[in-house]
Amino acid sequence: MVIAVVAIGCGAAEAPAEARAWAPLVAAVDLDPDPNVVEVELTAEVATVEFVEGIVTEVWAYRDSGSADAVASVPGPLIETALGDRLVVHLRNALPEGTTLHWHGLRVPEAMDGNPMNGGAVAAGESTTVEFVVRDQGLHWYHSHLYADEQIQRGLQGTLVVRGREEPQADLERVLVLDDVELGGDGALALEPSAEDLMLGRRGNTLLVNGRVPATAAARPGTIERWRLVNTSNGRHFALELSDTPFLVVGWDNGLVAEPYTTQTLVIAPGERYDVLVAIEGGAGERLLLETLEVARGGGMVDPGPYTLLELALEDPVADNGAVVVPPRRDVERLEVDADTMVRRFTLEHETAANGGTVFTINGKRWPLAPPVHVEVGTTEIWEIANDTDHDHPFHLHGFPFQVLDRDGVPEPTLGWKDTVRVAGQGLTRIAVRHDELGMWMFHCTIPEHAERGMMADLHVMEDPQ
After folding, report:
1. What is the DSSP string of 58-86?
2. Confidence of residue 10 (pLDDT cuts 50, 70, 90)
3. Going by C-beta distance under 8 Å and a sequence separation of 6 or more, which residues neighbour residue 461?
4. What's the whole-model pTM score?
5. Strand partners, 363
6. Is 16 helix (H, G, I), strand (E, B) or coil?
7. Has residue 17 got a pLDDT over 90?
8. What is the spatial distance between Cα 185 and Cα 176, in angstroms, rounded to a whole number?
9. In contact, 12 and 291? CB cutoff 8 Å
10. Residue 63: pLDDT over 60
11. Among the listed residues 235, 269, 264, 233, the one whose alpha carbon sits nearest the alpha carbon of residue 252
């Protein structure tokens, strides 16, 4: 297919074929003059985009309707706020069916979480307003949580940056939204999942960064770039490498980590976010390639690679000013757990249904038929997420960031806050979580093909669960 050649046919040593210019995300217009309030208007609508230049694809997308010149885009408008700001979002649904707006990674009031079982969906032609105080630093993303496997794949997703009081210093900041879509020869989205799509999540033939096929961006040796990365793909895992340049990881899903660390390869599962610093080195005219490598997904299946995602074309280097980059550190409160801490075990499984399809479950129960898990507000628990399948499952908890304790018995070396964690096939990951917000909250696999087919459950945080 021609599209696949243009979009992802580049090898490790090649530059992207017919690469387009780098496309930074466009920020939504803040309609409120108060410096502590961010107010935006979004319209979810049917639109067209060019993932591949010259090929028109119909999508469902968000448009910044507070700007007269804005057009709908995938991903949607970037929303920028600071910690402690009040965020007000007016959503108008111009789609032919209902939708919701979920704030992936943000602690919000129960009614603002986008859970269709709580507040219900925004019906076609209707509008709603979401309003809350932003409590979580970092890169987050918003998306539909109704028929999420199809609505996210159609394009209903966007990003939100929350700046904290202390931020890493860099010469340039980029937000990179990693995604993929399955395009037919006419450019139309393929929406009917295959059997492999159901097992691993939809993985398209066209890789995207900020809604475009691999692009070329200018970079200057001698500078430090900050990259905020999010994987919004339904199923694809990205394993990133930047030529011979290491990533200095300074943050995870929910803000800065206590101790930054360096890695040559960065694996990002669907829903995860990473905040990294990259030292640009080389000479003018040289090129650095950001690639995604092959990722083993279990059961002998892989997300293939290497494919080029972004080409950095190096320009004249900056003069060495002798400055030393000091990676930021964050005081992270460690959740205290001991032998008396309540332990809950959640087993992720799948089985073949009577009709030949696949059913995904947590503790043998399929959502929404499973009864909620009841816990007392203010308690800290250890959750054991046991993956009883051969394939990896990224696990996401609404409402509460958590700390990873260990993976397959190996203690987590870094202290930080996450809301999404990759659980290896036949693996066991333990997390510590404090339930400090009343309400009903979802937890599920972030591969929406799995969540929508049962691998989801509800957590009910109560004053008295007796």
Report:
1. EEEEEEETTSTT---BSS-PBEEEETTPE
2. very low
3. 375, 376, 377, 399, 435, 437, 438, 439, 440, 441
4. 0.94
5. none
6. coil
7. no
8. 27
9. yes
10. yes
11. 269
172-314: CATH architecture: Sandwich (2.60)
How high is the pLDDT of residue 165? 85
Residue linked to tokens 């507070």: 66
pLDDT band of residue 326 (cuts 50, 70, 90) is low
Instruction: Kindly report the average pLDDT of the chain as a whole number.
Output: 92
The order of strands in the sheet holding 420-423 is 373-376, 456-462, 439-445, 393-397, 420-423
Buried b (16+ CB within 10 A) or exposed e, 236-270: bbbbbbbeebbbbbbbbbbbbbeebeeeeebbbbb
Provide CATH 2.60.40.420 ranges for the chain: 21-163, 172-314, 342-462
State how beta strands 255-263 and 224-231 pair.
Answer: unpaired
Q: How many helices (H) does the chain have, and how many strands (E)? A: 4, 33
Cβ-based neighbours of 396, under 8 Å, separated by 6 or more: 104, 271, 419, 420, 443, 444, 445, 446
344's tokens: 């809950």
Torsion angle defined by CA atoms of residues 354, 301, 208 and 172, in that order, rounded to the nearest 10 degrees: 130
* Fold (CATH) for 21-163: Immunoglobulin-like (2.60.40)
Q: What is the DSSP letter of 336?
A: P
Q: CA-CA-CA-CA torsion for 405, 410, 411, 412, nearest 10 degrees? A: -70
pLDDT at 344 over 80: yes
DSSP β-bridge partners for residue 418 = 402
| Residue type present at position 73 | S
The answer to whether 304 and 294 are in contact (CB under 8 A) is: yes
Name the superfamily (CATH) of residues 342-462.
Cupredoxins -  blue copper proteins (2.60.40.420)
pLDDT-derived band at 260 (thresholds 50, 70, 90) equals very high
User: Could you tell me the two tokens for 234?
Assistant: 């339904």
Is the per-residue pLDDT at 215 higher than 60?
yes
Query: What band does 21 get if pLDDT is binned at 50, 70 and 90?
Result: confident
Place of tokens 């007392």: 376
Q: In three state form, how does the secondary structure of 384-452 look?
A: EEEECCCCCEEEEECCCCEEEEEECCEECCCCCCECEEEECCCCEEEEEEECCCCEEEEEEECCHHHHC
Residues 6+ apart with CB under 8 A from 154: 59, 60, 61, 189, 191
Q: Which amino acid is at 142?
A: Y
